[in-house]
Amino acid sequence: MAKEKENEIMEKIVSLCKRRGFIFQGSEIYGGLAGTFDWGHFGVALKNNIKQAWWKKFVDGRRDMYGIDAAILMSSKVWEASGHVAGFSDPMVECQKCKRRFRADQLDPNLQEICPECGGKLGEPKQFNMMFQTKVGAVEDSSSVAYLRPETAQGIFVNFKNTVDAFHPKLPFGMAQIGKAFRNEITPRDFIFRQREFEQMEIEYFIRETDWEKYFEYWKEQMSAWMEECGFDMTKIHELEVAPEDLAHYSKRTVDFEFDYPFGRKELFGLAYRGSFDLSNHKLEYVDEENSDPSTGSGQGKMVPHVIEPTFGVDRAMLAILLSAYNEEDPERPFLKFKPSMAPVICAVSPLLKNKPELVEYANAKVYAMLKNEFGRVAWDDNGNIGKRYRRQDEIGTPWCIVIDFDTLTDDSVTVRDRDTGTQERVKVSDLVSYIKNKLN
Ligand code: ATP
Fold first, then answer.
1. Ligand 1 neighbours by CB, cut-off 6 Å
2. Which CATH number is correct for 345-440, 3.10.310.40, 3.40.50.800, 3.30.1490.110, 3.40.30.10?
3. Contact by Cβ (8 Å): 406, 352
4. 248-268 mean pLDDT
5. How far apart are CA 90 and CA 103, in angstroms?
6. What is the residue with the minimal CA distance to atom 15 of ligand 1?
7. Pick from 376, 272, 269, 271: which is nearest to 318 by CA?
8. Of 311, 52, 302, 287, nearest to 156 (Cα)?
9. Whose CA is closest to atom 3 on ligand 1?
10. Å from CA of 17 to ligand 1 middle
11. pLDDT at 299
């Protein structure tokens, strides 16, 4: 894709997200805080839909998964044991002239020593730890140091024993968490792709070591299936086998799911085999009753499970879904072709004319109230002419617009207009809920 076109698409998405209340710059009225974003009404709805679809498939839809919601502030001991205090860093270079900082591994390899902003000379790379440190309590000494978690995974590991004691799960089983993570990224960029505060959906799936290859393949398929269900453009998804020399310190095998963003092919989600690295470091064990064999001296079944980790970024998922859905085949009518279940608004209800009380009354009491009660994500739209209302709903990806006109008053039917085809259908008011439910499924 030509560079200009790429920038154009990102600009359109960023502008649509602000104008239509999806995503705003964090702390915007004070000039913004780099790497942070605030989520407007439709952004929250889309994000919730992504998280709910994930929880439904991977937690509620399974018998072997246990949810957890751990604290964001975690003891420094957790991060010492996990290796993050020593090793969670990126190489950073500083420009000696303008003092701007960059990630050394993201600079143009042919221009390593030149500042991309001012052309000044760049200094030597230094390791920069990306964790946000804070102090907890009124006394400030080394014992009060805590960190905002840079990943949700450790919140799962440190609750492994609690979960085993409470639920007595048999191997293989998983623990799942959705929550915020914080990284002091050297160069946050590309809209919500690289932020300093973001959200993750992570699973730690505990297995016997001998089974790791089988479950690695299994989770790779599960991840792809979920993306397809959510409406990711699968032609833009690619699997990258991470080379051994590039693996994270804990990983024995990693596959990155990459997405063709307008700014390049970059990581969307990851799947890692973490071995027993984390549970061993936290000195956690499990009694595997099925494999209990005192003759082997294995301590009556005591063992350290191994782990497969499918990890998903909520924000990168949201950006990829927005880009997958953005459709401007007709430049007069750009629209977001979300899967209906993902759309922030499922349907919009409109009285044909807003100055005709009989239409407004019918639309409000008999249609809007009923649909709102049933689906929640329903909009009331009576502003401007019908064409303008359709455009407005198309832009935010509303699959169906329902119009109450003068015929409705006598035949109790409404016009349902389809976002993708523009076709219109008359539907009985009494059939509307089942009509939409059928289409949603
Ligand atoms: P990258 O190489 O792009 O920095 P990573 O390999 O460090 O990413 P992981 O540690 O594997 O990322 O984090 C798991 C997931 O969390 C990523 O696949 C991504 O979806 C999301 N993620 C990571 N860092 C960020 C960030 N700064 N902003 C938004 N999402 C992020």
1. 151, 183, 185, 194-195, 198, 200, 267-270, 311, 313, 315-316
2. 3.40.50.800
3. yes
4. 94
5. 7
6. 313
7. 269
8. 311
9. 267
10. 22
11. 54
The stretch 262-280 carries a mean pLDDT of 96
- What is the pLDDT, as a whole number, of residue 2? 63
Question: What pTM did the predictor assign?
Answer: 0.93
- CATH superfamily of domain region 3-73+160-325: Bira Bifunctional Protein; Domain 2 (3.30.930.10)
What are the backbone angles phi and psi of residue 375, rounded to the nearest 5°?
Answer: -110, -15
Q: List the chain domain ranges.
A: 3-73+160-325, 345-440
**Does the structure show a pLDDT above 80 at 7?**
no
pLDDT digits (tens, 9 = 90+) for 340-384: 999 999 999 999 999 999 999 999 999 999 999 999 999 999 998
- Give pLDDT tens digits for 89-125: 888 898 999 988 888 888 887 777 888 888 899 988 8
Joined tokens for residue 258: 């990459």
